């Protein structure tokens, strides 16, 4: 099902249908598309909770220098609402956030957002969900949906003396726009996608950039083409162009990187060769050696940049591979005793990954809690639901295929799947529904069996792995993901 045009928003419900009260937690791209689908079908008894003062999720919180998406813009959008005005192949965060906010306003979702509101506790009372906000307000819903995201709470490194630093410490996900960087000596701690993106804009204005690298990354060279005004006009006149771009980029990412992730073969080897070619552009053999990973490409989330290696060879950029010992008022001291004098420490140290709706607490049927359900780590049924939590669904839930895919495409698939059940509730086909325990166990068992062939198990450490070293992402193709969720397996649910 595709979402209809804005003229069809708030369509009338068929007589005899009931209208569900729905609460959505989170207004990133997942919460917004879920709200769009509900509004398009006339289910307007809707509240969205947003802990920040703006919607957009990660594209609101992350505003660091150099921020851009590493998924092509034409693929990082809703397929049924293509934009004709993307400025680049890989757009900056502000432009992406504006797109999702524009969609929320177009589908009248924006007016139903309660900003600066956290979800504290949700409890199933036998017939409906009772939710308490951080401010103590009470909400009641027939259907509760979590779209809280997977990378939300910033992770700060445990560095001795960090609080004694006389300069400025800033995390990439809470950037200070008043921070003066010109002619400053800046450290970047973290070499994932965020850290890599920060290098060029900082190196262009700072007197010195010191890159503290714990683990080198494979970097895929992808030029960031700028789209022309003529191209915008052409795409606006012929929307099929944007839709064509969407399908081309989806095919390229799913076939090149997607297949390389789940199984060894030509795709994984090709990505590896491209990354090695990019690394070979580093002229200094010693620098190249220190930038060379000792694991298979794609084992960690692949970094995409054509700028990183040229920047690392600039005279005002220094790579430090010695471990950090402590932080002092004047800078960072590494294990070899060297003091690296600094004015600013920029933390690109990521997030507490895969927390989903945590730290919110939940209690489902018979008092069964979320802590009990996830005692051995987050798990669920086909990424969208959990046993013993009736009428509760997740967009971007556990084991969603988040590795180098478009989260917009994933959320679109999951939200459409959830809408099947919303409509069934509206048509009085059930009062409460939750996946069967045995069906959930089988899904998770099958997933673990097929996880052994993925690149994540080849010997690297990444945020894909849980505390037991088990990957938490989808071990199959994106095509299988869409196929599995296209037609809900109602027989694998308990309906009452």
In words, what does this structure look like?
With 496 residues, the chain is an alpha/beta fold. It folds into two domains: 6-153 and 352-495, FAD/NAD(P)-binding domain (3-Layer(bba) Sandwich), CATH 3.50.50.60; 162-217 and 300-347, FAD/NAD(P)-binding domain, CATH 3.50.50. Helices cover 30% and strands 16% of the residues. The protein has 13 helices and 21 strands. The chain has helices at residues 29-40, 58-61, 93-106, 193-205, 229-237, 240-262, 266-279, 285-290, 308-312, 370-373, 407-426, 437-451, 478-486; strands at 22-25, 46-49, 113-114, 119-124, 129-133, 138-141, 143-146, 168-171, 185-189, 208-212, 219-220, 303-304, 317-320, 324-328, 331-334, 339-341, 344-347, 361-363, 392-394, 433-435, 493-495. Strands 3-2-1-7-19 form a five-stranded parallel beta sheet, covered by helices on one side. The protein has a five-stranded parallel beta sheet with strand order 8-17-9-10-13, with helices on one face. Helix 1 runs parallel beside helix 11 (407-426). It is globular and about 70 Å long. The mean pLDDT is 93.
Low-confidence stretches: none
Total DSSP helices: 13
Number of strands: 21
Instruction: Give the fraction of residues assigned to helices.
Output: 25-40%
Largest sheet: 5 strands, parallel
Hey, roughly how much beta strand do the residues contain?
A: 15-25%
The structural class is alpha/beta
Strand order of the largest sheet: 3-2-1-7-19
Radius of gyration: 23 Å
Count of domain modules: 2
CATH architecture annotation name of the largest domain:
3-Layer(bba) Sandwich
What is the CATH fold-level name of the largest domain? FAD/NAD(P)-binding domain
Shape: globular
Distance between the ends: 26 Å
């Amino acid at each position: 099902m595709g979402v209809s045009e804005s003229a069809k928003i708030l369509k009338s419900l068929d007589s005899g249908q009931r209208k569900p009260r729905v609460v959505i937690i989170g207004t990133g791209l997942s919460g917004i598309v879920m709200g769009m689908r509900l509004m398009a079908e006339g289910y307007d008894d809707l509240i969205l909770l947003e802990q920040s003062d703006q919607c957009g999720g990660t594209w609101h919180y992350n505003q660091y220098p150099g921020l851009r998406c590493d998924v092509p813009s034409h693929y990082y959008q809703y397929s049924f609402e293509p934009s004709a005005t993307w400025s680049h192949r890989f757009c900056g965060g502000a432009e992406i956030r504006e797109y999702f906010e524009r969609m929320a306003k177009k589908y009248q979702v924006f007016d139903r957002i309660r900003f600066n509101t956290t979800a504290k506790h949700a409890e199933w009372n036998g017939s409906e969900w009772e939710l308490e906000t951080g401010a103590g307000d009470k909400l009641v819903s027939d259907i509760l949906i979590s779209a809280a995201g997977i990378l939300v709470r910033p992770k700060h490194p445990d560095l001795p003396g960090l609080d004694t630093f006389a300069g400025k410490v800033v995390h990439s996900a809470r950037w200070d726009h008043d921070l003066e960087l010109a002619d400053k000596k800046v450290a970047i701690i973290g070499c994932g996608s965020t850290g890599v993106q920060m290098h060029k804009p900082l190196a262009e204005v700072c007197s010195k950039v010191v890159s503290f690298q714990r683990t080198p990354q494979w970097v895929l060279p992808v030029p960031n083409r700028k789209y022309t005004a003529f191209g915008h006009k052409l795409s606006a006149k012929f929307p099929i162009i944007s839709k064509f771009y969407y399908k081309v980029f989806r095919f390229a990412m799913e076939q090149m990187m997607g297949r390389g992730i789940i199984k060894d073969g030509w795709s994984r080897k090709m990505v590896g060769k491209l990354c090695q070619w990019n690394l070979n552009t580093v002229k200094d053999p010693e620098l190249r050696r220190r930038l060379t990973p000792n694991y298979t490409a794609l084992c960690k989330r692949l970094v995409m940049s054509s700028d990183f290696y040229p920047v690392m060879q600039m005279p005002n950029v220094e790579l430090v591979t010695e471990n950090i010992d402590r932080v002092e008022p004047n800078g960072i001291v590494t294990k070899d005793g060297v003091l690296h004098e600094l004015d600013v420490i920029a933390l690109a140290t990521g997030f507490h990954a895969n927390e989903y709706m945590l730290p919110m607490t939940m209690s489902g049927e018979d008092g069964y809690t979320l802590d009990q359900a996830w005692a051995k780590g987050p798990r669920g049924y086909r990424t969208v639901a959990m046993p013993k939590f009736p009428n509760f669904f997740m967009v971007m839930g556990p084991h969603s295929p988040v590795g180098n895919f478009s989260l917009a495409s994933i959320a679109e698939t999951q939200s459409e799947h959830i809408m099947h059940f919303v409509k069934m509730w509206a048509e009085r086909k059930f009062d409460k529904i939750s996946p069967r325990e045995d069906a959930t166990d089988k899904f998770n068992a099958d997933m673990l069996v097929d996880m052994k062939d993925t690149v994540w198990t080849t010997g690297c450490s990444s945020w894909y792995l849980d505390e037991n070293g088990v990957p938490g992402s989808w071990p199959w193709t994106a095509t299988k993901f869409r196929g599995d969720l296209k037609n809900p397996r109602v027989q694998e649910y308990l309906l009452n």
